[in-house]
Amino acid sequence: MPIPSWKSGLQEIAENVFAYVHSGVGWDICNSGFIVGDDGVMVIDAMMVASMVDPYLEEIRKVTDKPIRYVVNTHHHVDHSFGNQFYLPAEVVSHQGCREAMLARGADVNMLNEQFPQYREDWAKTQLNPATITYQDKMNVHLGGRVVELLHPGPAHTYGDTMVYLPQDKVLFSGDVAFHYLTPLARDGHVSNWIKVADGIFKHLDVTTLMPGHGPVTIRKCLAKP
């Protein structure tokens, strides 16, 4: 059965909450999103290289001219975190395990060229910029009048995952804890606990809209078990 197509590009999924959805099925580009607060913007997942980030920043600037204050990395994989440098001087925020994994893995340009040769010119411009703010279990960011909860679900897709939860809007940016229509990679995490985490999302959080790390935005009724 072929993978269905879905709506891509910029989508407002709650008031001043935006999803930037990738249309393809490759592992080189992830979904991203941003939240516009009273005095600044939080970006969720930086993507990977300048050729991806530049058009995204143009989309953000069509919505707001407020400064980008925070960039949240949902985990350390390059498609989510290696674009951090293009949002500076924003503060980069992640789970401590994400920062540690980025530092341990480093930015091996030769390896990146082998994995993603189509971005060879981009890698020459890429620098490693891990989080400057980290947390362990939970962290709240007050973005103007909106509370943004950064939640570590325990080992799942990786050992340093972050889910970004907006309780007032009932929106969850899951990072790669959730994929939609795509088969996830499972090389850096804890698969049995990941299953428990995924099953528990709707038990423990009041979520009506879920933005996965890859694939289309979905709503609760589409994910409920029959």
Q: In terms of topology, how is this protein built?
A:
Blueprint: E1 9-14, E2 17-21, E3 32-36, E4 41-44, H1 50-63, E5 68-72, H2 78-81, E6 91-95, H3 96-105, H4 109-115, H5 120-123, E7 133-135, E8 138-143, E9 146-151, E10 163-166, E11 171-179, H6 191-204, E12 209-214, E13 218-219, H7 220-223
Parallel strand pairs: 4-5, 5-6, 6-7, 11-12
Antiparallel strand pairs: 1-2, 2-3, 3-4, 8-9, 9-10, 10-11, 12-13
Main attributes of the structure:
single chain; 226 residues; alpha/beta; Metallo-beta-lactamase, Chain A; 7-stranded mixed sheet; 6-stranded mixed sheet; 7 helices; 13 strands; globular
Please, could you describe this protein's structure?
The chain has 226 residues and is an alpha/beta fold. The protein has one domain (9-223): Metallo-beta-lactamase, Chain A, CATH 3.60.15.10. The protein is built from seven helices and 13 strands. The strands form two sheets. Strands 1-2-3-4-5-6-7 form a seven-stranded mixed beta sheet. A hairpin with a 4-residue loop joins β3 and β4 (41-44). The two termini are 21 Å apart.
Short description:
This protein has 7 helices and 13 strands.
